[in-house]
Structures are given as structure tokens and as C-alpha cells.
């Protein structure tokens, strides 16, 4: 899926809904942002309240720099 996301001709907005995200997912999201020169305002990520069991505070900190993040129960 990573290669498909990074091989699009152009991308102007990204909306992702996922129950979980890992550090690798953050890396991929950063690549998408950089590849398509997207602004933070053009990327929205919807996550479950239990989005990560591996250092969630660090992942959330990184995400706050990359995109708009909304957590849901």
C-alpha cells in the first residue's frame, strides 16, 4: 500500500481513518506529506482512543506536527 500511496500523480488532500498507527505509519505519512508538498491542513487522521500501545505520546507528538488528528472512542 505504501508504494501505491507514493506513486499517485498528484494528491491535494489526505483523509485516513484507522484504529491503530505505528511509528512506521507515521514515517509513511511523513513521506506522503513531503512527496506531494502537502500542508498540515490538507492531512486529516482519525484514530481510535487506543491508537498505539508503543509510546503513544511520542507518536501523537509527531502526528501533531504532520497533520490534523482526531481521536474517537
**Reading side by side through the largest sheet, how are the strands ordered?**
1-2-3
Task: Quote the average pLDDT.
Answer: 92
What is the share of helical residues? Answer: 25-40%
SSE topology string = HEHEHE
| Overall spatial form | globular
What is the overall number of helices?
3
Strand content: 15-25%
> How many strands appear in the DSSP assignment?
3
Protein structure class: alpha/beta
Structural domains: how many: 1
Major sheet description: 3 strands, parallel
- Radius of gyration, CA atoms, in whole angstroms: 12 Å
Distance from N terminus to C terminus (CA atoms, Å) equals 26 Å
- Spans where pLDDT lies below 50 across 5 or more residues: none
Outline of this structure?
This protein has 73 residues and is an alpha/beta fold.
Verbal overview:
With 73 residues, the chain is of the alpha/beta class. The protein has one domain (2-72). It is 38% helix and 22% strand. The protein has 3 helices and 3 strands; from the N terminus they run αβαβαβ. It has helices at residues 2-5, 23-35, 56-66, and strands at residues 14-18, 43-48, 68-72. It has a 3-stranded parallel beta sheet with strand order 1-2-3, covered by helices on one side. β2 (43-48), α3 (56-66) and β3 (68-72) form a beta-alpha-beta unit. α2 packs parallel to α3 (56-66). The longest helix has 13 residues, at 23-35. The radius of gyration is 12 Å and the shape is globular. It starts with a helix and ends with a strand. The mean pLDDT is 92.
Write the layout of secondary structure elements.
Elements: H1 2-5, E1 14-18, H2 23-35, E2 43-48, H3 56-66, E3 68-72
Parallel strand pairs: 1-2, 2-3
Helix pairs in contact: 2-3
Amino acid at each position: 500500500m505504501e508504494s501505491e500511496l507514493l506513486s499517485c500523480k498528484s494528491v491535494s488532500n489526505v483523509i485516513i481513518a484507522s484504529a491503530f498507527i505505528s511509528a512506521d505509519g507515521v514515517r509513511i505519512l511523513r513521506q506522503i506529506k513531503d512527496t506531494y508538498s502537502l500542508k498540515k491542513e490538507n492531512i486529516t487522521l482519525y484514530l481510535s482512543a487506543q491508537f498505539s500501545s508503543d509510546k503513544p505520546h511520542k507518536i501523537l507528538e509527531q502526528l501533531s506536527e504532520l497533520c490534523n488528528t482526531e481521536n474517537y472512542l
